[in-house]
Design brief:
About 75% of the residues lie in helices and about 0% in strands. It is an all-alpha fold. The chain folds into 3 domains: about 35-95, Serine Threonine Protein Phosphatase 5, Tetratricopeptide repeat (Alpha Horseshoe); about 110-160; about 165-228. It starts with a helix and ends with a helix.
Length: about 230
């Protein structure tokens, strides 16, 4: 009789452990549960579910933070909360860290903060398909606030990537056009060499002509000043 009781107790314990594991963050369906809650229309419940997963010692914590941030931003319009979750995702350094940094850049109000986040995204995952675009965005945002060193750092990095080289050289040309037309001329030439075509080729040639005109005007002005 005692053996039967022991066997029954062990069976009950096994079932309890199995059920507990199935409903734990380690379950293969752990991420399906908050997704189902969201599909039912309960965004708050889904957010809580993903937050619970993010707090658990599991390998997919970054995914939980990412999903929670998307819900906070898109479903609940709580941008501050989404920003905090994305920052945690970046600090965690998982597979979604670069994407989280890029999303932080899109949410940033200040151009300089956006530029820093775009740079972080590109640095975290240089091989990402969007890395060139992120560097271009960083350069443009930095130029908006007049931070030329940051803009050039981002754009020169983008110029090293085939998919973003043309636009990077165009932006670099624009950045130097007024202050250093000779350098701008070289950069617009580089855009053409990198494969500018169509609209980008037209922009490169126009920029090069503008730079040449400014260089010529500068030489004329120098001659006038020397004559005086």
């Amino acid at each position: 009789m005692s053996l039967l009781r022991l066997t029954a107790a062990l069976c009950l314990l096994g079932v309890t452990l199995l059920v507990g594991w199935w409903w734990s963050p380690y379950s293969p369906v752990a991420f399906d549960r908050p997704a189902a809650v969201l599909a039912s229309g309960d965004a708050e419940g889904a957010l809580a579910g993903y937050r619970a997963l993010a707090a658990a010692p599991i390998t997919r914590r970054d995914e939980a933070l990412w999903q929670a941030a998307l819900i906070a931003e898109i479903e609940l319009s709580r941008v501050d909360e989404a920003t905090a979750l994305l920052q945690d995702c970046v600090l965690l350094g998982g597979p979604l860290a670069a994407d989280a940094a890029a999303r932080l850049a899109r949410l940033a109000v200040e151009p300089l903060a956006a530029a820093e986040h775009w740079m972080t995204a590109a640095e975290l995952e240089p091989g990402h398909a969007e890395s060139g675009r992120w560097l271009l965005n960083a350069g443009e945002a930095a130029m908006t606030v007049g931070d030329l060193p940051m803009a050039e750092a981002a754009l020169f990095a983008a110029a090293e990537r085939e998919e973003s080289a043309v636009l990077a050289w165009l932006l670099l040309g624009r950045a130097a056009l007024e202050s250093d037309p000779a350098t701008a001329h070289v950069r617009y030439d580089a855009a053409l060499t990198a494969g500018a075509e169509g609209v980008t080729a037209t922009l490169a040639r126009s920029g090069r002509e503008a730079a040449a005109t400014l260089m010529e005007d500068g030489m004329i002005l120098a001659d006038v000043l020397d004559a005086e």
